[in-house]
Amino acid sequence: MIKKEKPTWYIVTFHIIMTAIIFPFFGLLAGYFLIKFFGNMLQSGTLVIIKDIISIGFFFLGVMYSLIYIDKKILIKKPLNCSKNAILMFTILILYVWSVHIANNPNTIAMVYNTLFYGIIFLIFFIMTRQYFTKLAQNSKDSGK
After folding, report:
1. Which residues does 39 contact at the CB level (< 8 Å), separation at least 6?
2. What values do phi and psi take at 46, rounded to 5?
3. What is the C-alpha separation between 86 and 13, in angstroms, rounded?
C-alpha cells in the first residue's frame, strides 16, 4: 500500500475530527443507551460517572484509530509540526468546551469534576499524539542516515 503525502493542516484536521467529534459522538450514543436501559436501576451520580467513563473510552479509541489510520495511509514530512499544531488546536478546543461547562454549572463540585474529566481527555490526547509524532520524527531521522 502506498502512502499519500498530505499537508500538516489535513493531518491535524483529520486527527482532531476523529478524536474530538466522530468517536465521542459514538460515546454519547453509548451513554444515551446506558441511561435509556439502566436509568431506573442506578443512581444518577453513578450513571454520570459510568457515562463519562464510556465517553473517555470512546475518546481513547478515537485517538488510537486516528493515529493508526494516519500511520497506515499518510506520509508525513513534518511530524513535529503535526504534533505541535494538533496539540495546540486540541488545547484550544478542550479549554473552550471546559469553560462552557463551567459557565453553565458554576459550582465547586462541577468545576472539580469537569476539570478532572477534561484533564483526563487532554492527557490521553497529548500523550498519545506526542508519542506517536515524536517516534515518527525519530524514525525518519534514523532512516535518513
Report:
1. 47
2. -65, -40
3. 8
d(CA 145, CA 31): 49
pLDDT digits (tens, 9 = 90+) for 23-70: 999 988 888 888 788 767 767 777 888 888 999 999 999 999 999 999
The owner of cell 469534576 is 113
Quickly tell me which residue has 493531518 as its cell.
11
57 Rama class: left (phi>0) / alpha (psi -120 to 50) / beta: alpha
Place of cell 508525513: 76
Torsions phi, psi for 30 (to 5 deg): -60, -40
DSSP tag of 45: H
Largest CA distance in the chain: 63
CB within 8 A of 129, min separation 6: which ones? 15, 63, 67, 83, 86, 87, 90
